[in-house]
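Sync notes, pocket subgroup
Present: LS, DG
LS reminded everyone that the earlier model was apo-only. Rerun requested with uracil included. Inputs:
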Amino acid sequence: MDKKTLEIENLTAEAKECRKCGLSKFRNNVVFGKGNPSSGILLVGEAPGYNEDMRGIPFCGKAGDVLDILLSSVGMKREDVYITNIIKCRPPQNRDPEPVEIESCREYLEKQIDIIKPRAIGCLGRHSLRYFLDRFSFNVRGSITTLHGKVFEHSGDIFSRTKVVALYHPAVAVYDPGKIDVLKNDFRIFAGI
Ligand code: URA
Protein backbone atom coordinates (compact mmCIF):
# COMPACT_ATOMS: atom_id res chain seq x y z
CA MET A 1 0.00 0.00 0.00
CA ASP A 2 1.40 3.43 -0.88
CA LYS A 3 1.97 6.15 1.71
CA LYS A 4 -1.01 8.33 0.82
CA THR A 5 -3.43 5.38 0.85
CA LEU A 6 -2.11 4.33 4.25
CA GLU A 7 -2.46 7.84 5.66
CA ILE A 8 -6.02 8.10 4.33
CA GLU A 9 -6.87 4.70 5.83
CA ASN A 10 -5.55 5.75 9.24
CA LEU A 11 -7.57 8.95 9.08
CA THR A 12 -10.68 7.02 8.03
CA ALA A 13 -10.32 4.78 11.08
CA GLU A 14 -10.01 7.86 13.30
CA ALA A 15 -13.09 9.52 11.74
CA LYS A 16 -15.18 6.37 12.28
CA GLU A 17 -14.94 7.03 16.04
CA CYS A 18 -15.70 10.75 15.72
CA ARG A 19 -18.30 12.23 18.12
CA LYS A 20 -17.44 15.88 17.60
CA CYS A 21 -20.91 16.95 16.52
CA GLY A 22 -24.50 15.82 16.94
CA LEU A 23 -24.64 14.11 13.53
CA SER A 24 -22.73 11.17 15.01
CA LYS A 25 -25.88 10.21 16.95
CA PHE A 26 -27.89 9.60 13.78
CA ARG A 27 -25.38 8.11 11.38
CA ASN A 28 -25.17 4.54 10.17
CA ASN A 29 -21.77 5.11 8.58
CA VAL A 30 -19.15 7.82 8.41
CA VAL A 31 -18.74 8.57 4.70
CA PHE A 32 -15.12 9.56 4.66
CA GLY A 33 -14.14 9.43 1.00
CA LYS A 34 -13.19 7.09 -1.82
CA GLY A 35 -10.90 7.01 -4.80
CA ASN A 36 -7.26 7.52 -5.59
CA PRO A 37 -5.48 9.83 -3.12
CA SER A 38 -2.50 10.02 -5.51
CA SER A 39 -4.53 11.32 -8.46
CA GLY A 40 -4.05 14.99 -7.56
CA ILE A 41 -7.73 15.55 -8.31
CA LEU A 42 -10.21 16.11 -5.50
CA LEU A 43 -13.98 16.34 -5.90
CA VAL A 44 -15.82 17.66 -2.87
CA GLY A 45 -19.59 17.45 -2.46
CA GLU A 46 -21.80 18.64 0.33
CA ALA A 47 -22.83 15.85 2.70
CA PRO A 48 -23.81 12.18 2.56
CA GLY A 49 -27.45 11.40 1.77
CA TYR A 50 -29.53 8.34 2.62
CA ASN A 51 -27.75 5.87 0.32
CA GLU A 52 -24.31 7.14 1.25
CA ASP A 53 -25.11 6.86 4.97
CA MET A 54 -26.33 3.28 4.49
CA ARG A 55 -23.29 2.19 2.47
CA GLY A 56 -20.47 4.43 3.67
CA ILE A 57 -19.60 5.42 0.09
CA PRO A 58 -19.83 8.99 -1.29
CA PHE A 59 -22.18 9.66 -4.20
CA CYS A 60 -23.68 6.17 -4.47
CA GLY A 61 -27.31 7.26 -5.07
CA LYS A 62 -28.97 9.10 -7.94
CA ALA A 63 -26.59 12.08 -7.75
CA GLY A 64 -23.77 9.53 -7.91
CA ASP A 65 -25.20 8.12 -11.15
CA VAL A 66 -25.02 11.63 -12.61
CA LEU A 67 -21.48 12.03 -11.30
CA ASP A 68 -20.48 8.81 -13.10
CA ILE A 69 -21.98 10.16 -16.34
CA LEU A 70 -20.04 13.41 -15.91
CA LEU A 71 -16.77 11.61 -15.18
CA SER A 72 -17.17 9.28 -18.14
CA SER A 73 -18.04 12.24 -20.41
CA VAL A 74 -14.46 13.43 -19.87
CA GLY A 75 -12.93 9.95 -20.05
CA MET A 76 -12.52 9.55 -16.30
CA LYS A 77 -13.48 6.91 -13.79
CA ARG A 78 -13.90 7.15 -10.04
CA GLU A 79 -10.45 5.58 -9.62
CA ASP A 80 -8.95 8.61 -11.39
CA VAL A 81 -10.08 11.04 -8.68
CA TYR A 82 -10.65 11.17 -4.94
CA ILE A 83 -14.23 11.98 -3.88
CA THR A 84 -15.33 13.28 -0.51
CA ASN A 85 -17.75 15.74 1.10
CA ILE A 86 -17.48 18.85 3.26
CA ILE A 87 -19.09 16.91 6.11
CA LYS A 88 -18.75 13.17 6.58
CA CYS A 89 -22.05 12.29 8.30
CA ARG A 90 -25.59 12.61 6.96
CA PRO A 91 -27.68 15.52 8.25
CA PRO A 92 -31.23 14.43 9.22
CA GLN A 93 -33.68 14.68 6.30
CA ASN A 94 -30.74 15.79 4.13
CA ARG A 95 -30.96 19.34 5.45
CA ASP A 96 -28.13 21.77 4.72
CA PRO A 97 -25.02 21.33 6.87
CA GLU A 98 -24.91 23.75 9.80
CA PRO A 99 -21.83 25.95 10.34
CA VAL A 100 -20.97 24.10 13.56
CA GLU A 101 -21.00 20.78 11.67
CA ILE A 102 -18.77 22.15 8.92
CA GLU A 103 -16.37 23.43 11.60
CA SER A 104 -16.35 20.08 13.43
CA CYS A 105 -15.50 18.28 10.21
CA ARG A 106 -12.94 20.82 9.00
CA GLU A 107 -10.06 18.94 10.60
CA TYR A 108 -10.78 15.82 8.53
CA LEU A 109 -11.18 17.64 5.23
CA GLU A 110 -8.03 19.66 5.86
CA LYS A 111 -6.07 16.50 6.67
CA GLN A 112 -7.39 14.90 3.48
CA ILE A 113 -6.21 17.94 1.50
CA ASP A 114 -2.85 17.82 3.24
CA ILE A 115 -2.34 14.16 2.30
CA ILE A 116 -3.70 14.38 -1.25
CA LYS A 117 -2.15 17.76 -2.11
CA PRO A 118 -4.59 18.21 -4.99
CA ARG A 119 -3.63 20.26 -8.02
CA ALA A 120 -7.33 20.50 -8.91
CA ILE A 121 -10.33 20.77 -6.62
CA GLY A 122 -13.82 20.46 -8.09
CA CYS A 123 -16.43 22.01 -5.81
CA LEU A 124 -19.71 20.17 -6.26
CA GLY A 125 -22.38 22.65 -5.26
CA ARG A 126 -22.62 25.87 -3.33
CA HIS A 127 -21.55 24.68 0.13
CA SER A 128 -18.36 23.21 -1.21
CA LEU A 129 -17.71 26.28 -3.36
CA ARG A 130 -18.18 28.63 -0.39
CA TYR A 131 -15.80 26.52 1.72
CA PHE A 132 -13.00 26.68 -0.84
CA LEU A 133 -13.50 30.32 -1.85
CA ASP A 134 -13.14 31.20 1.85
CA ARG A 135 -10.29 28.76 2.44
CA PHE A 136 -8.15 30.22 -0.31
CA SER A 137 -9.33 33.78 0.41
CA PHE A 138 -10.65 34.26 -3.10
CA ASN A 139 -12.51 37.52 -2.89
CA VAL A 140 -15.37 36.42 -5.10
CA ARG A 141 -19.05 37.19 -4.83
CA GLY A 142 -21.82 35.36 -6.60
CA SER A 143 -23.87 32.23 -6.45
CA ILE A 144 -23.17 28.87 -8.02
CA THR A 145 -25.51 29.93 -10.85
CA THR A 146 -23.17 32.75 -11.83
CA LEU A 147 -19.87 31.07 -10.89
CA HIS A 148 -20.24 27.52 -12.27
CA GLY A 149 -17.55 26.65 -14.81
CA LYS A 150 -15.15 29.27 -13.44
CA VAL A 151 -11.59 28.42 -12.43
CA PHE A 152 -9.86 30.08 -9.49
CA GLU A 153 -6.13 29.67 -9.14
CA HIS A 154 -4.18 29.89 -5.92
CA SER A 155 -0.43 29.85 -5.66
CA GLY A 156 0.33 28.77 -2.11
CA ASP A 157 4.08 28.78 -2.52
CA ILE A 158 6.49 28.43 -5.44
CA PHE A 159 6.03 24.65 -5.45
CA SER A 160 2.28 24.36 -5.21
CA ARG A 161 -0.54 25.69 -7.28
CA THR A 162 -4.11 24.66 -6.73
CA LYS A 163 -6.93 25.31 -9.14
CA VAL A 164 -10.46 25.41 -7.77
CA VAL A 165 -13.36 24.91 -10.15
CA ALA A 166 -16.97 25.78 -9.39
CA LEU A 167 -19.28 22.96 -10.48
CA TYR A 168 -23.00 22.47 -10.16
CA HIS A 169 -23.97 19.74 -7.73
CA PRO A 170 -24.82 16.57 -9.74
CA ALA A 171 -28.25 16.45 -8.05
CA VAL A 172 -29.17 19.47 -10.21
CA ALA A 173 -29.43 17.12 -13.19
CA VAL A 174 -31.48 14.62 -11.17
CA TYR A 175 -34.15 17.28 -10.67
CA ASP A 176 -33.66 18.98 -14.04
CA PRO A 177 -32.28 16.45 -16.59
CA GLY A 178 -32.21 19.20 -19.24
CA LYS A 179 -29.23 20.73 -17.39
CA ILE A 180 -26.92 17.77 -18.05
CA ASP A 181 -25.16 19.49 -20.96
CA VAL A 182 -24.32 22.50 -18.80
CA LEU A 183 -22.86 20.17 -16.17
CA LYS A 184 -20.90 18.25 -18.82
CA ASN A 185 -19.48 21.47 -20.19
CA ASP A 186 -18.29 22.52 -16.72
CA PHE A 187 -16.71 19.10 -16.28
CA ARG A 188 -14.85 19.57 -19.56
CA ILE A 189 -13.36 22.75 -18.12
CA PHE A 190 -12.50 20.90 -14.90
CA ALA A 191 -10.85 17.99 -16.73
CA GLY A 192 -8.88 20.38 -18.93
CA ILE A 193 -7.08 22.31 -16.18
N1 URA B 1 -24.67 14.56 -2.28
C1 URA B 1 -23.47 14.96 -1.81
O1 URA B 1 -23.19 16.16 -1.72
N2 URA B 1 -22.62 14.03 -1.44
C2 URA B 1 -22.86 12.73 -1.53
O2 URA B 1 -21.99 11.93 -1.17
C3 URA B 1 -24.11 12.34 -2.05
C4 URA B 1 -25.00 13.27 -2.41
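DG: Residues 45-49, 52, 58-59, 63, 85 surround uracil (CB under 6 Å).
LS: Residues 16 and 49 are 17 Å apart (CA to CA).
Action: DG to write up.
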